[in-house]
Design goal:
The chain has eight helices and ten strands. The protein is of the alpha/beta class. The chain has a single domain, classed as P-loop containing nucleotide triphosphate hydrolases (Rossmann fold). A six-stranded mixed β-sheet has the order 6-7-8-3-9-10, sandwiched between helices. Helix 5 packs parallel to helix 6. The radius of gyration is 18 Å and the shape is globular. The termini are far apart. The N terminus is likely disordered. Bound molecules: adenosine-5'-diphosphate (ADP) and magnesium ion (MG). The site of adenosine-5'-diphosphate has 12 residues, from strand 2 and helix 1.
């Protein structure tokens, strides 16, 4: 046990699965320029579940997208492990995203013409990597998808589609899994299932998970909640309770 966080491993450059250093992101130029990230420094420790919260427009998606190599910062650095994303060429970035990261989006982002099983193995198939069959079976069984693997997304409920997206993110055992409001389109039962899966991935499989959420209940599954406002990191809570999260959010929004 770590005395600072109360759980898991301590954060530190050597132990960080991902980190931002002076991350600055501006959209547009001149008078209409918007500062989405105002020099953010943050570390996401390995084997931790972190939730990012903050008011709408506070920079949550921008932070996640810059840290996951889906968008590039104006200045500053984003690291996955020891790899500085700003130093990568397009091809290297594509390979890094494919081999080292998992993504879960609010809108599931499944390929409609492929079955659930094909969607889950698609990134590995594109990479020409072999899927660990035993792990595939373990993950899909844990997610309650065993009898749904031949179905296409349109034949699945929203909750089932998001569980397929979770399986797709987990099957290659990436270094870190990012989710931008992964439960944003789900009812409370399906949300709970997805959050339980992510919690288990951290507790049982030594995964690292970072999600953006505006839901205090979802954030309470995390080991740590960091709060953004106006593109700045302004607060954090370790081992958060729903009440602590709600109180902090109320303080930010008032
Ligand atoms: N593509 C874009 N072009 C211009 N402004 C953007 C773009 N994306 C985001 N922004 C602005 O950047 C700020 C942060 O946005 P975002 O990261 O999406 O916030 P959040 O996810 O917390 O709601 C907001 O002011 C938003 O309007
Ligand atoms: Mg957002």
């Amino acid at each position: 046990m770590d005395s600072v966080t109360g759980k898991h491993r301590a954060a530190g450059p050597a132990g960080a699965a991902a980190r931002a250093v002076g991350l600055f992101k501006q959209y547009g130029e001149g008078e209409t320029a918007v500062t989405a990230l105002d020099h953010v420094d943050v570390e996401f420790a390995r084997n931790q579940f972190t939730a990012i919260m903050g008011p709408s427009g506070s920079g949550k998606s921008t932070l996640m997208h810059c840290m996951a190599g889906l968008d590039s910062a104006t200045s500053g650095s984003a690291y996955i492990g020891d790899t500085d994303l700003s130093g990568l060429r397009d091809k290297e970035m594509t390979a890094l995203r494919r081999d080292r990261l998992g993504f879960i989006f609010q809108s599931f982002n499944l390929v409609p013409t492929l079955t659930a099983a094909e969607n889950i193995t698609l990134p590995s198939d594109i990479a020409g990597a072999k899927v660990d069959q035993e792990w595939f079976e373990e993950i899909t069984s844990r997610l309650g998808l065993t009898n749904r693997l031949t179905h296409r997304p349109a034949e699945l409920s929203g909750g089932q589609q998001q569980r397929v997206a979770c399986a797709r993110a987990l099957v290659s055992r990436p270094e870190i899994i990012f989710g931008d409001e992964p439960t944003g389109n789900l009812d409370s039962n399906s949300s709970r299932e997805v959050l339980d899966i992510l919690r288990t991935a951290v507790d049982q499989d030594d995964q690292t998970v970072v999600i953006v959420t505006h839901d205090a209940k979802a954030a309470s599954y995390a080991d740590r909640v960091v709060f953004l406002a106006d593109g700045r990191l302004i607060n954090e809570i370790l081992d958060p309770t729903i009440d602590e999260i709600l109180a902090t959010m109320a303080g930010i929004e008032s």
